Amino acid sequence: MHEHVWEFRDPYEWMARYAKFPPMIVTCAVDGGIQGKESHPALPELPDEIAQSTKEAYEAGASVVHIHGRDPADFTNCTDDPEVYREILGKVREKSPEIIINITTGGGPTTTDEGRVAILDAGPEMATLNLGPDMERFELAERKPPLPHPREAMVVDMCMPFTYGFIDRLAGVMFEKGIKPELEIYQPGQYWVSRGLAERGLIKPPYAHQLVMGVQTASYPTPWNVLNMLQELPAGSVFTVAGVGKYQWPLVTMGIILGGNVRVGLEDNLYERRGRKLKGNGEAVEKVVRLAMEFGREIATPAQAREMLGLSATPSCY
User: Fold this and answer.
1) Of 141, 261, 286, 312, whose CB is crowded by the most CB atoms within 10 A?
2) How far apart (Å, rounded) are the C-alpha atoms in residues 305 and 32?
3) pLDDT of 21-73, one tens digit each?
4) Virtual CA dihedral for 308, 247, 294, 261, nearest 10 degrees?
5) d(CA 183, CA 297)
6) Helices 164-177 and 191-199, interaxial angle, to 10°?
7) Domain spanning 11-133+161-274: which superfamily?
């Protein structure tokens, strides 16, 4: 077993490895599929904006970028058009030549199952794979002119209806296309799903699990639940901690301390601290890198991250 894949649940191994953990992969979720510039002017929407924001995160220390493409006809919605994604991915690769490109299959409230499959035709290196349904209700701020595609404030009441059958289908398409799935774990019961995928050979180690904490109907975003989620982490896994909103900074700090990887970015959290918004995705990465260095964690280069995740050493071309 490679040195970066170890028994995260074993306190004796944690003590033996502390201060010589594997390098820490930083993922930056630069945009997201729901809120846009009405929530933060630095949230990228256009392909050029996504590429520039990714460049800032890359230069700050991110090895992975997570991307949602926007519908050119309505920036308030995600797109499922692989041609739009290819344009975005090409611009991202031009500005950030080594970064690992990870795109959504969750999409947004209007994304269909067929759209989630179609997105994969863009040929990313990684893609998210939700391991169960995601139910949420929240209010979106009014989008005012001169922003394009203005709309009233609204309440979103949504469910992404991921089923066993559809998860198998998405995993199968990713396997056929050579796309590494990032396994999105919202609560520990979803390990039933990831273990089933592994048993049927639809995913291969190292299994990239991302613990998504703070989303409605997910596990509560507490330190205790981070530890509990690790108790069921399948052997042969690497893990990333993602905290949403005000819970981001304490939870990614848990990820740093526990020897895992972390995700930051404007998709998940707009604030550097209470009362002060982040300047952009680059500042979010700068902060988590600074926190990691305080705990003696080395930041993974894209080349190291590729090896740790079992990806090709050669960045994709678009």
Assistant:
1) 261
2) 22
3) 999 999 999 999 899 999 999 999 999 999 999 999 999 999 999 999 999 99
4) 0
5) 24
6) 50
7) Aldolase class I (3.20.20.70)
CA–CA distance, 91 with 264 (Å, rounded to integer): 21
Q: What is the value of pTM for the model shown?
A: 0.97
| Tens-place pLDDT, residues 142-169 | 999 999 999 999 999 999 989 999 999 9
Yes or no: say if 25 and 240 are a contact pair by the CB < 8 Å rule: yes
3-state secondary structure the chain: CCCCCCCCCCHHHHHHHCCCCCCECEEEECCCCCCCCCCCCCCCCCHHHHHHHHHHHHHHCCCEEEECCEECCEEEEECCCHHHHHHHHHHHHHHCCCCEEEECCCCCCCCCHHHHHHHHHHCCCEEEEECCCEEEEEEECCECCCCCCCECCEEEEEEECCCHHHHHHHHHHHHHHCCEEEEEECCHHHHHHHHHHHHCCCCCCCEEEEEEECCCCCCCCCHHHHHHHHHCCCCCEEEEEEECHHHHHHHHHHHHHCCCEEEECCCCCCEEECCEECCCHHHHHHHHHHHHHHCCCCECCHHHHHHHHCCCCCCCCC
Q: Which residues pair with 241 in a beta bridge?
A: 211, 262
Q: Respond yes or no on whether the N-terminal peptide bond of residue 133 is cis (omega within 30° of 0).
A: no
Q: Which residue, among 247, 259, 175, 182, has the nearest Cα to 216 in the 3D structure?
A: 247
Closest CA to 147 of 300, 22, 40, 60: 40
> Whole-angstrom Cα distance, residue 148 to residue 302?
35
Q: 70 pairs with which residues across the strands?
A: 78
Residue 5 CA from chain centroid, whole number: 20
| Cα–Cα distance measured from residue 316 to residue 172, given in angstroms and rounded to the nearest whole number | 20
Four-residue CA torsion sign, 130, 261, 42, 245? positive
- The two tokens of residue 186 are 């919202």
Domain residue ranges in the chain = 11-133+161-274
